[in-house]
Amino acid sequence: xxxxxxxxxxxIVRKAGASRVSERAATELAKVLxxxxxxxxxxxxxxxxxxxxxxxxxxxxxxxxxxx
Length: 68
Prior knowledge:
The protein is mainly α. It has a single domain (6-14, 22-67), classed as Histone, subunit A, CATH 1.10.20. It is built from 3 helices and no strands. The protein has helices at residues 6-15, 23-50, 58-67. Helix 1 (6-15) packs across helix 2 and helix 2 crosses helix 3. The longest helix is centred in the middle third of the chain and has 28 residues, at 23-50.
């Protein structure tokens, strides 16, 4: 089960231009977004640790997302 609520994911797809979105499509996108988010978070955590910090910063997230 996805952690992200389906309604916001549905809105993302609609903003991209879809007029209709199946619940299954929104659920699948939520899973993909969570997988990508987890990978970005993991990379950001490694960056913070490498910098000698315990706190992940917005800059860590931005840099990690660019690397992936």
